[in-house]
Amino acid sequence: MQVAAHQESVRSIDADAVVIALPSDDTWPQPTVELNEASGGVIGRLVESGEFKPKVGETMLLYGLAGVSARVTCVVGVGSLEDRDAGVAFRAAAAAAKRLAGHQRHRVAYCWGPGWNGDLCENGIAGAFVGCHGQDIHRRERRLHPFETLLWENGDRLEEGRALGESLNFCRDLVNGAPSDINPEGFVEAVVPLASEAGIVTEIWDEQRLAEERCGALLAVARGSDAPPRLMKLQYRGDASAQRPAMTLVGKGVTFDSGGYSIKPSDGMKTMKCDMAGAATVVGTLLAIARWKLPLRVDGVVGLVENLVSGRAYKLGDVLHARNGTTIEVLNTDAEGRLVLADALDVAAADRPERLVDLATLTGACMVALGTDTAGLFANDDTWCDQIMRAAGRAGEPVWKMPMFDFYGEQLRSQVADLKNIGEGRWGGAIVAAKFLENFVADIPWVHIDIAGPSFLDRAKSWIDAGGTACLVRTLVETARDLALTA
């Protein structure tokens, strides 16, 4: 999709559809006022009658509006202007794009008036990319059709918005891909060309290298599958002088999770192609950072396995040897993500990054605690965690900081090994899982982000199709921009 700025009147611009913003405040932007006057007050009457409520992401299509060259006018609610932020711009622009993408549109112009530039333009364009791109990547006839050209009134940071939108959609496509295609090898094959094009150096560890590196926890999870595991290291050197990464992102990449011998029921397995969303988020974030050419070094590590059942599969009662020397008693083979992350985190920590973040669809317990829209944050360093939370606030992505009291870790004591891979019961399960991971980050400031809830939608929302969401990519890109500005 091409992106360009425009300065033409909303009434005369050459476009198949125009998108105008409708705030809940009394002050309307000039394009909205202009169209309302040209149409004899149609928009005002629809609001006054209650037919349209300008909540963020609410949309309405008007056809053949008087005084407008475009055949279709999309009115989108943007809420209160004093609450306008990047998250509002992203969701509102995405909702409008999704509403219009039911038919092929060659040129779509966003005419939102002054004030929607900078961060708002960047996130608005990214939102438009997300809104018109669906999970229907395997359908012969798609339900959503990306625009050929997107125009943004007086837009700036256009290329940043496009780079962010494309990175978000690639992350979503990885999650939405069929698990037999996006297995560990398929994930690598999909990522390497785009990473290389963006200037990201990749290093792939195969099964032999993983064994040489003593990644016994990751290899144990992979044993039940015929698809060999992979560990992928990614390095973006926007600051060639940096001796170590300013931030390393680590992702859980269980490309399909049957639960192993602790097997899931069929309903619980239907969406388990999304259990590699953490790894996809790492890739999407690094692609955006590299495409923005941010002046800092950021690394990524993703552990890629399938968790299946066979005569070779790891079993309850097995004792695994993690890369850092920790022994782990397996008491549930469906608590496999933390085992993959144990070795991946140790690989990342060996390069002594200044900060660590891991992302994982780790626990259903986090969804019990926070629902399906909010990611849980768990940290060993409050300053680093607060920095990510501030970036999430600016991006409009809901996160919540969870406690990490030491007594939660006591549940992981094993009688036969250093640790066991589950706690003593269902209570506080997301925190206990985070305490398990804490054993593998050395003394590096670290935040674990459990994205089990918001990473995958069973049902579409007004602004995004069902399936993968690429949640937290915008937050982590914003975090990287903060680090670059303060370096």
The N- to C-terminal Cα distance equals 34 Å
Strand content: 15-25%
Subunit arrangement of the protein: single chain
Low-confidence stretches: none
What is the number of helices?
16
Helix proportion = 25-40%
CATH C-level label of the largest domain: Alpha Beta
- As a whole number of angstroms, the C-alpha radius of gyration is 23 Å
What is the strand tally? 19
Sum up the overall morphology in one term. elongated
The assigned structural class equals alpha/beta
CATH superfamily of the largest domain: Zn peptidases
The largest sheet, given as strand count, sense and whether it forms a barrel, is: 8 strands, mixed
- Order of strands, main sheet, comes to 7-8-10-9-13-17-14-15
Précis, in short:
The chain has 487 residues and is of the alpha/beta class. The chain has 16 helices and 19 strands.
Q: What would your notes on this structure say?
A:
It is a single chain. The chain contains 16 helices and 19 strands. The strands form 4 sheets. The chain has an 8-stranded mixed sheet, sandwiched between helices. Strands 1-6-5-2-4-3 form a 6-stranded mixed sheet, covered by helices on one side. It has a 3-stranded mixed sheet with strand order 11-12-16. The protein is an alpha/beta fold and 487 residues long. It has 2 domains: 155 residues, Leucine Aminopeptidase, subunit E, domain 1 (3-Layer(aba) Sandwich); 322 residues, Zn peptidases (Aminopeptidase, 3-Layer(aba) Sandwich). Helix 8 packs antiparallel against helix 11, helix 11 runs parallel beside helix 15 and helix 13 crosses helix 16.
